Amino acid sequence: MKVADLSSYLLYPNPEHPALTDQVIGKDQDGNEVSVDVVTERGLTVYLNRQEIVTLMTLGDHPHYLALGFLLNQNMLRPDDVVTGIDYDEELEVVIVRTERATNYEDKLKKKVRTSGCAQGTVFGDIMEKFDGMQLADASRLPISAIYALSKQINTTPSIYHKAGAIHGCVLCEGDKPLVYMEDVGRHNAIDKIAGYMYQHGIEPQDKVFYTTGRLTSEMVIKTVQMQIPILISRSGFTAWGVALAKQAGLTLVGRAKGRNFVVLSGEERLVYS
Amino acid sequence: MKVADLSSYLLYPNPEHPALTDQVIGKDQDGNEVSVDVVTERGLTVYLNRQEIVTLMTLGDHPHYLALGFLLNQNMLRPDDVVTGIDYDEELEVVIVRTERATNYEDKLKKKVRTSGCAQGTVFGDIMEKFDGMQLADASRLPISAIYALSKQINTTPSIYHKAGAIHGCVLCEGDKPLVYMEDVGRHNAIDKIAGYMYQHGIEPQDKVFYTTGRLTSEMVIKTVQMQIPILISRSGFTAWGVALAKQAGLTLVGRAKGRNFVVLSGEERLVYS
Questions:
Q1: Would you place residue B148 in the very low, low, confident or very high pLDDT band (cuts 50, 70, 90)?
Q2: Are the beta carbons of A215 and B54 separated by less than 8 Å?
Q3: How far is B15 from B253, CA to CA, in rounded Å?
Q4: How close does chain B come to A198, measured CA to CA in Å?
Q5: A20-24 long-range contacts, CB within 8 A, separation 24+
Q6: Is residue A67 within 8 angstroms of chain B, CB to CB?
Q7: Quick check: is B27 in a domain?
Q8: ipTM at complex level
Q9: In a domain, B65, yes or no
Q10: What is the CATH number of the domain that holds A122?
Q11: What is the count of structural domains for chain B?
C-alpha cells in the first residue's frame, strides 16, 4: 500500500502501540495455526468532579480527549467551562475531569435511564431539545475534488483498521487536508475524542470537514452539528433520520464516498462542482 | 444476483416493506439528481409492566420480538417468566410487556454501561456477574462446509442491506440452514429480535449457530452466550475482549468468514475439518 503524505496531520493513529492491539493464536480454514491482530476494548469510567457519569467501552487511547469530548457532546461540560485538571488512572480505568464551576448532573443522570440505548448517542434526554434550535453557518464551501483527496489520504494512512480491522475512524479535516485522525471500537468514542481535541486546542469548527468511516446515523449527525462542523462525509451509507436531522440543521451530508463516487443528500449548496 | 434458496427460513427480511426504507432525492458526484433508498430509524420505548425501561433506536419491524429479546438479554425477563401480554402502539412508539410476576428494576436501571457497538448498545451492570458463571455445552459440532454454505445463502438472501445498506443482520441457523434472519440499524437490536423470536417460539439454542454481519465485540459474545448458542460466526473481525470472553465461556468464535476463508479464535473443537 502506498502510504499517504502525513505532513498535514496534527495527530494520526499509532498502529504499533502495544496496548491497542493483541495477538491471538487461532486456526484458519485449512486448519493451519494463524496469529491474528485484534483490537483491544476496555472500560473507562468518566467522572465529572465528584460525580460518576458513565462507563465507556473504548480502544483505550486518548482518555483525556475522550472524557472531555464525551462531556462536551452530552452538554455536561460547557464550551466556556474552565477545566482545572484531568486525572487519568490507567490501572483503575478511571478519568476525572475537574472544572472551576461546581457541577451536579444527578437529575440529568436519572433522565438517561429513560433514554438509554438510544442510538442518537445521547444517553441523556435533553440533547434533542438543544438540537432543535441549532442551525449551521452557511459560509463554508468545499470543492468535490477535496472529497476524493480526503478519502484517498485517509484510506492510505497507516491505522489500526489496516492492522486489525473491527474499528471505526473519524477524521477532522480542513479543505483537502486531514488534521486529526482518531480510531475507536465505538465510533461515538472516536468522534468524542475529536471533540475533546478541538476543545483542548481551541480549534474552530466552522471551516472544518468531518470524515467518518461509519454510517451516517442520527447519532453522528447530532454530534457533528453540536460540534458546529458544517460538512460530514462518510464512505458508508445513510439512515433516514440522519438525513432528516441533517436537513433540519443545514448540515452537508455526503455518503457512499468511494473512489470517484459519492451521494450528497443534504446541504449540497456547500459543494462546488468544478 | 442469484437469490438464495429461501425454503429453510422461518422468517427473512422484507425489503419491500414501505415502512422500513425511505427514498431521498440527492445529487451524485456528477451533479445529477439521484434517488437513494435509506433505512428508517425510529424510537421504541419498552415498558416492563408499569416501568419504563429504555428507548431503543430501531428499524421498527418486529417490536414484540425486540422488546422480549431486549428484556431477556438484560436479565429483566426470566426464561421461566409467563408473559401475559404484549401491547404495541405504533403511533406512540411504545411496547409494553406484561408478566405474571411483579417486576421492579429501579436499582438495575441506575447502573449502565455504554457498549462499543456501531449504534451503541446498553448493558446494565450485573450482566457481567451472571456471565462469569456461564459455560456452554460442548456437544455440538459443525462441519466447516456449513460455514461456507451459510455465508453464501445469507449473502444472497434479499435484504434491506442489499437495498439500502447501513444496516446489520443477524441470522439464527441450524447446521448449514438459515432459519431466522433479522436486520436492524443497531446490531444489538437484531440479536435481541432473534432472542425474542426464540423465546416466543420455544426454540432450543444448543444445536444452533448464530451468524452476524457485524464485528465480534464483547457485547455480541455476551449476548450469544446468554442465549446459550454455542457457535458464533461473522464475516467481520474481532475485538480482544470479545475473544477473551468467548474463550472464558467456551464459545466457538469464527470471524472474517468470506468466501472460503475464515479464522477461528476460540472453541475450535466444535469445527469439523473434512
A1: very high
A2: no
A3: 29
A4: 22
A5: A20/A59, A20/A60, A20/A61, A20/A160, A21/A160, A21/A163, A21/A164, A21/B240, A22/B240, A22/B243, A24/B238, A24/B240, A24/B243, A24/B265
A6: no
A7: no
A8: 0.89
A9: yes
A10: 3.40.140.10
A11: 1
| Residue A243 to chain B, least CA–CA distance (Å) | 8
Q: What gap in Å lies between CA B91 and CA B76, rounded to an integer? A: 25
Residue A225 neighbours by CB under 8 Å, 6+ apart? A131, A134, A136, A245, A246, A249, A251
Mean pLDDT of A197-212: 97
**Neighboring chain B residues of A240 at a CB cutoff of 8 Å:** 21-22, 24, 38-41
Which chain B residue is nearest to residue A55, measuring alpha carbons?
B113
Q: Calculate mean pLDDT across residues B99-120.
A: 68
Which range marks the domain in which residue A250 is found? 1-274
B94-99/A209-212 β-pairing: unpaired
In a domain, B99, yes or no: yes
Q: For A245, which residue in chain B has the nearest alpha carbon?
A: B41
State mean pLDDT over A123-146: 85
CB contact under 8 A, A263 and B26: yes
Whether B11 has its CB under 8 Å from any CB of chain A: the answer is: no
Contacts of B52 in chain A (CB under 8 A): 114
Instruction: Establish if B28 belongs to a structural domain.
Output: no
A95 close to A64: Cβ distance less than 8 angstroms: yes
Indicate yes or no: CB of B120 within 8 angstroms of CB of A186: yes
B33-89 per-position pLDDT tens digit:
999 999 998 889 999 999 988 888 899 999 999 999 999 998 899 989 999 999 999
Which chain B residues are within 8 Å of A24, Cβ to Cβ?
Answer: 238, 240, 243, 265
Asked whether the predicted pLDDT for residue B160 surpasses 50, the reply is: yes
The yes-or-no verdict on residue A206 having pLDDT over 90 is yes
Nearest to A241 among B41, B118, B265 (CB): B41
**Does residue B247 have a pLDDT over 90?**
yes
Q: Would the pLDDT of B200 be above 70?
A: yes
B166 touches chain A (CB under 8 A): yes
Q: Mean pLDDT, to the nearest integer, of A90-118? A: 75
Length of chain A: 274
- Per-residue pLDDT, B208: 98
